[in-house]
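FAQ: What does a ligand-bound record look like?

Like this one, built around NAX:
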Amino acid sequence: MTKPLRVAVTGAAGQIGYATLFRLASGEIFGAQQPVILHLIELPQAQGALDGIHMELDDCAFATLAGVEKFSSDNLELAFKDVDWVLCIGSIPRGKGMERSDLIRINGPIFTNTGKAINAAASRDVKVLVVGNPCNTNCLIAMSHAPDIPRANWFAMTRLDQNRAASQLAIKAQRPVAAVQNVAIWGNHSATQYPDFMNAKIDGQPASQVITDHEWLKSTFISTVQQRGAAVIAARGASSAASAANAALDTVKSLVNPTPAGTCISAAVLSDGSYGVEEGIISGFPLSSDGKNWKIIQGFQVDEFSRSKIDATINELKTERDTVKDLLP
Ligand code: NAX
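The answer part, i.e. the structure of the complex:
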């Protein structure tokens, strides 16, 4: 029998965590022949909710679900024992009147502990996807505290931005979203991110040839994607949940399967200096995977307009890194 994969989800009882678990258990992400053991991790006060989720997982009778284990976040070494994947979703969301820098200071220590525990207990080949915001900088903190885990195994989530951008281009071009490919998200998962229409393709043609309203591409398109999270909150009264869970699962699927030629995956990874992005920060790049290893795709066009947008979002990431300097070993 195939050895089960152990997949840990922090914040498992939260709205994104809840929307993630059932699809992880169903066989959709790792395949119908790959058993999965879920490690559900929550704050001590949310353990009751995990019991309910466990019942629901049992009630789905998923053939690929080989086990459910529940853990409190105050014993992370136990929670991460031998795990192959960690989805770091649990964190404190931004409250009213809270600045981004306040959030970094509140959530930063969570990721210090997360990194240390992953380093101590997880599989040596563990892959980590950080969703909890500010996800790029939280990923940097956790990675910095896990010196024994390869740097290539750390990701922060920009896939929701990529999916949002692809949909906006499809709507504008009046084409199905499947016709839109190669959309990169550069920099930070924040309102400074740069959704790159310059290298995007629609039906294999440059998006800027299919969509001739270049003013729309340079202004409305970018700001719509940058502000989409806030627009969902304003309309729904709660932040993106199912779409965020979907994006986390899309990220995992895209990394464990080969990337089709002519397309890219969007995720934030440790910069190696590609495209002039300062080394040592976690930035969104266009990636491709062979199903095991990924690389930053080279050769994307970066003109003066894109350069200024990329520089702005990288500057924000540098500021975030400086805000948490004392949390980086
Ligand atoms: P919820 O508040 O619904 O759920 C968070 C859960 O995490 C709660 O159940 C809480 O008990 C738990 N938690 C808090 N601290 C924890 C810790 N130290 N260990 C384990 N669990 C802990 O938030 P939700 O809507 O699920 O959002 C989760 C995170 O995703 C937030 O930080 C949010 O900002 C971030 N997002 C990131 C996105 C991205 O694209 N990267 C988009 C969606 C989302 O906004």
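Follow-up question: can I read anything off the structure? Yes, for example: The mean pLDDT is 96.
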